[in-house]
Amino acid sequence: MTAIFSIFALFVLLALRQSVLVILGVILAILYLTNTDDSLRFIALDAWQALNKDILLSIPLFILCGQLMSEGSIASRLVALIRALVGPIPGGLAIATIVSCATFAAVSGSSTVTLLAVGSVMFPALLEAGYSRRFAIGALCAAGTLGIIVPPSIPLILYGVMTGTSITDLFIAGIGPALVLTALLAVYSGLVNFDKQHGHWSLHQIFTAAREGIWSLFMPFIILGGIYSGHFTATESAAVAVIYALLIETFVHRDLDLRKINTVIFNTSKLLGSLFPVLMLAVCLTVYLTYDKSADSLIPTIASWSDSPLQFILMTNMLLILVGTLIDIGSAILIFAPLLQPLALEQGFDPVHFGISMIVNLEIGYLTPPFGLNLIVAMAAFNASFKEVCLAVIPFLFIMVIGLAIVVSWPALSLFLL
Q1: 249 and 316 in one domain?
Q2: Which of 3, 16, 149, 368 is the one with CA 20 to 30 A from 414?
Q3: Residue 46 and residue 7 share a domain
Q4: How far apart are CA 4 and CA 33, in angstroms?
């Protein structure tokens, strides 16, 4: 009876367009009041245990690092170097757009920040070079989503926290799929723009761009190299990244002053203020489901629906793509990761591989109408209509689905470095 009432409350709140925070709060209150000695104080106790984890420190630190770099000039310097290297080849500026997004994603860990930071530089450059407006919008929207699969990635951290999967393993496992998705998008972008060539190679230009962008290139090596070599944990690498970004942008590039740093701290605090309450309640829900063994009861039910691991993963893919269009990826991971991972393990999937597959699924949701986040951001960033943005991303959606099929069907792509 409690489960039916909770599901009814969920649909009512969704129909009323309530926030994920309100939905989780109401459902938790129903569950705790009816099944835990009629006391809400257990929510506070479980919430404290949820947030009392060292790994959670990496989330505000990586967000702060991304904000520091977006306010500074690391994005523009990275883009300038990539343009100098690949821009002159046929379709090179299109390829440079994809590679720039992937590279900046590796130092920011955010899809939205990547889209805005690289888009502000590359969108006018693409239009000036004769590329179609539709292609430019679609390419930046699609490549911007790489921010959630290229490590360090906040969604990967959230998935690790919610399921107990090693975040270091998830970071390493994300490298192969990220490279494949980047390659697919870059090859497509180069082929459809093969008739466009922008300038010629200039050793002087390459040298100048490399000299100005060399400090920016060290960032991914510091983060990933430190984690992969075992010198840093994810939290320690985030702290080192913040210090490095602050020192470079303040004393080397000299693009940050006290006013901008205040803005960065304020923006980071706003993001955390919306993320951590949802995270707290989501972990409380996970604790309750573990105590109640609700997830265990789902296993035979799902098993009766799916006759094979292939059928299970296809059903899961469709569910996650739908979820990715309706709610933001952080909330989707917080709600669905602890529910779906036990089912995936029962079907024989590796927990790390399933985590990467889930993130790529939700990545496609960023581009899927009507609620894809990157579509909404692109409307404001590029002064485009919703119809224009949706039409622009259609060919890239097909490319992303191909990439998803490769990631899901080829576990070694995610696991070969582990």
Answers
A1: yes
A2: 368
A3: no
A4: 15
Domain span holding position 294: 40-415
DSSP state of 252: I
12 & 158 share domain: no
Please calculate the CA angle 259-209-129 and round it to the nearest 5 degrees. Answer: 95
Do 71 and 50 reside in the same domain of the chain?
A: yes
Same domain (yes/no): 95, 222: yes
Give per-residue burial for 240-270: e unless 16+ CB within 10 Å, then b: bbbebbbebbbeebebbeeebbeebeebbee
Domain check: are 11 and 67 in the same one? no
Query: Are 17 and 71 contained in the same domain?
Result: no
Check whether residue 223 and residue 83 sit in a common domain.
yes
Alpha-carbon distance 333 to 249, whole Å? 33
The predicted model scores a pTM of 0.76
